[in-house]
Design goal:
The complex is a heterodimer of chains A (about 300) and B (about 250). By secondary structure, chain A is α/β, with parallel strands linked by helices. In chain A, about 30% of the residues lie in helices and about 15% in strands. In chain A, the strands form three sheets. An eight-stranded parallel sheet of chain A has the order 3-14-13-10-9-8-7-4. In chain A, strands 5-6-12-11 form a four-stranded antiparallel sheet, with no helix packed on it. Chain A has a two-stranded antiparallel sheet with strand order 1-2. Chain B has three domains: about 90 residues, Translation factors (Elongation Factor Tu (Ef-tu), domain 3, Beta Barrel); about 100 residues, 3-Layer(aba) Sandwich (Rossmann fold); about 45 residues, Dihydroorotate dehydrogenase B (pyrk subunit), domain 3. Chain B: It comes from Jeotgalibacillus alimentarius.
């Protein structure tokens, strides 16, 4: 099992696999399928200061090899998450990454300050890239200076390391990565969804009530992979990658691109066992690739000479 | 308990225009606890269509470990489903169905619209088995779309309506309920939202249950895609886990 054990800022993980935020709630639904303690970590649903009811329905639409969603950060609010959801998760041997969202800087700071003090929260994921809310979210994730400042303010109050979730909906994601690094980020998570749209053939109107939604699923994997490949070459911050991961080989791809860990999102909806299956399958793949540890593959897509070695 | 298993496709046939009946077999059937629950089906092994398809259980037989589903094949996923043979990946049973235990009164009216008709069949069978008199009002677009009339007739009276008047009474299910002066002690309904709204108004004086439909993601309550507005402090409920069946008066019709 040591082949998969990894160490990241704030996170000593049994394995590098975790469900992505928004695709797993707070784990209650998935604990009926397997023991959550098997997971490396869990990125829980975005938490805002006050309860949010989310967007009108329809909130999802399927697309080729993917889906659009515009849930709108529906969550029970900081207090309930602190008093109910996190204590429930503490029953598992599972370090939690708490996803923090807000409309204003003060919201982020307040949520980060409180939630980072929960015993089982080992890191924060700063959600500056939700494309589906009118205020906050992506507004913080597309301007490097704004993102840097927010990261610094959250960093100043957080008791645990802060990972910043990057949006792919920018001209140059490397600039954003470097900006949040300058703001003091301990790590990056990437990518959030790509803004997309689907129209009803007959009416010509958007299918999703919010009109646009975030595209996820296998369709976005090539984009995510390219971005991890680019960002991992300009920063030493560890990257937790997500974007269309649905198999153990997808995880190998992202580690090869330069990520340190991988999060599984949409695939949980199709196969509720997917995270467990990936964890089970990885050791045999590492044997097949003849490596001792999964991080022996890290960044081999761009590291000079390494690709040839592994092919030999 | 929710299972994910490969179920055997025993048969698959067209029973009305674009309407398919599929019979599946496997231990998952043992887990069904009430009529009106649904299953979430991965229609093929490919990434496209990606998501599962929620389909209500029309009837089941625990002795044979079989269940029958009826679906309309008009979208990409259900058209793909209609071509499947052999085995299929099913997750379920899911959701909370129609309560049939301890129902007060003698007579139940079951009202279905289009592809909302199927789950009422098992509901009616179980009500009848508990000694209730069952009356059915089933609405369809046209004569070509009508299915299960004879099956429901074996259980109790059936009133068919069609929107174009090509079969049965012309108009909506609520028109037939008024025209034939249907009286009951409880109602069970499944169909399009405007129909559910009209049914709740018409049968204001008796208790009842309605089954909702919404675009779904995970089917187990995690993704928060299929919410519906409700009266009460929580404001929203999840169709997949709090429903799909809700008590009369619970839903806010927008």
């Amino acid at each position: 099992m040591d082949k998969l054990r990894i160490s990241l800022p704030g996170l000593e993980l049994k394995n590098p696999i975790m469900p992505a935020s928004g695709c797993f709630g707070f784990g209650r639904e998935y604990c009926q399928f397997y023991d959550l303690s098997l997971l490396g970590s869990i990125m829980v649903k975005a938490t805002t200061l006050e309860q949010r009811l989310g967007n009108p329905v329809p909130r999802v639409a399927e697309t080729s090899s993917g889906m659009l969603n515009a849930i709108g950060l529906q969550n029970p609010g900081l207090e309930k998450v602190m008093n109910t959801e996190l204590p429930w998760l503490a029953g598992y041997d599972l370090p939690v990454i708490a996803n923090v969202a807000g409309s204003m800087v003060e919201d982020y700071v307040e949520v980060a300050k409180n939630i980072s003090r929960a015993g089982n929260v080992h890191a924060l994921e700063l959600n500056i890239s939700c494309p589906n809310v009118k205020e906050g979210g992506i507004a913080f994730g597309t301007d490097p200076e704004v993102a840097r400042e927010l990261t610094a303010k959250v960093k100043a109050v957080s008791e645990v390391p802060v990972y910043v979730k990057l949006s792919p909906n920018v001209a140059d994601i490397k600039t954003m990565a470097l900006a949040v690094e300058k703001g003091g980020a301990d790590g990056l998570t990437m990518i959030n969804t790509l803004v997309g749209m689907r129209l009803d053939h007959r009416t010509g109107k958007p299918v999703i009530a919010n009109k646009t939604g975030g595209l996820s699923g296998p369709a976005i994997k090539p984009v995510a992979l390219r971005m991890v490949y680019e960002v991992s070459q300009v920063t030493d911050l560890p990257i937790i990658a997500m974007g269309g991961i649905s198999s153990a080989w997808d995880v190998i791809d992202f580690i090869s691109a330069g990520a340190s860990a991988a999060a599984v999102g949409t695939a949980n909806f199709v196969n509720p066992f997917v995270c467990k299956e990936i964890i089970d399958e990885l050791p045999a793949i590492l044997d097949e690739l003849e490596v001792e540890h999964i991080h022996d593959l890290k960044g081999r897509s761009w590291k000079v000479g390494e690709t040839a070695d592994y092919r030999a | 308990m929710i299972k994910v298993e490969k179920m055997k496709i025993l048969s698959q046939k067209i029973i009305a225009e674009n309407i398919y009946e599929i019979e599946l077999q496997g231990p998952l059937v043992n887990e069904i606890s009430m009529p009106g629950q649904f299953v979430h089906i991965k229609v093929n092994k490919a990434n496209d269509p990606l998501l599962r398809r929620p389909i209500s259980i029309s009837s089941y037989d625990k002795k044979r470990q079989t269940m029958t589903l009826i679906y309309r094949a008009t979208g990409a996923g259900t058209i793909e489903l209609a071509q499947q043979t052999g085995e299929i990946n099913v997750m379920g049973p899911l959701g909370s169905g129609f309560p049939v235990e301890d129902v007060k009164g003698e007579t139940a009216v079951l009202i279905g619209g289009g592809i909302g008709v199927p789950p009422l069949y098992e509901c009616s069978k179980q009500l009848k088995a508990r000694g209730k008199k069952v009356i059915h009002i089933l609405g369809f677009e046209s004569a070509e779309a009508v299915f299960y009339e004879d099956k429901f007739k074996e259980l109790g009276p059936v009133y068919i309506t069609t929107a174009d008047g090509s079969y049965g009474t012309k108009g909506f299910v609520t028109d037939a309920a008024v025209q034939f002066n249907i009286k009951a002690d409880i109602f069970y309904a499944c169909g399009p939202v405007p129909m559910l709204n009209a049914v709740e108004k018409l049968f204001e004086s008796i208790p009842g249950y309605i089954s909702m439909e919404q675009r779904m993601g995970c089917g187990i309550g995690a993704c928060l895609a299929c919410v519906c507005a409700v009266n009460g402090p929580e404001l929203y409920k999840k169709v997949c886990t709090d429903g799909p069946v809700f008590a009369k008066g619970e839903l806010v019709y927008g």
